[in-house]
Amino acid sequence: MFQIFMIIGWAVQLVILLYLWADIREIGELVRENKREMLRNNIGGRASVVYPNLREDSLRKPAAEETPENPAQEGKDEGALKLNESEEQVLREVLSEFLG
User: Fold this and answer.
1) DSSP secondary structure of 14-73
2) Tens digit of pLDDT per residue, the chain (100 long)?
């Protein structure tokens, strides 16, 4: 009789250990995924600061293109971007939504 209870006790302990092992593995996977996501966000934020928008650089005219026939405008801001019509429309909608 004692041996039966001992076998049942060992079986219960084994089941409990299997449940704990499964929970620990699941928690480990969640921690790894969370860590990956944090690294992606961190690296993405740094990349946007370190590397300027490539489109912005491609739209700027280099100073070497300034010739006597085509002088640079003195009042023109060199850092200004030229937006196409759809981008201007989106910008207007966003500004009107937030400002007025």
Assistant:
1) HHHHHHHHHHHHHHHHHHHHHHHHHHHHHHHHHHHHHSPPHHHHHHSPPGGG--SSSPPP
2) 889 999 999 999 999 999 999 999 999 999 999 988 888 887 765 555 554 555 555 555 555 555 556 555 555 555 567 778 888 888 888 888 777 6
Amino acid (1-letter code) at residue 11: A
Residues 11, 17, 23, 29, CA torsion sign: negative
Q: Write down the pTM of the prediction.
A: 0.37
Q: How far is CA 55 from CA 52, 60, 72, 83, 100, in A?
A: 9, 9, 21, 11, 29
In angstroms and rounded to an integer, the radius of gyration of the C-alpha atoms of the chain is 32
Whether 66 and 72 have beta carbons less than 8 Å apart is answered as: yes
> Among candidates 73, 93, 75, which has minimal Cα distance to 83?
93
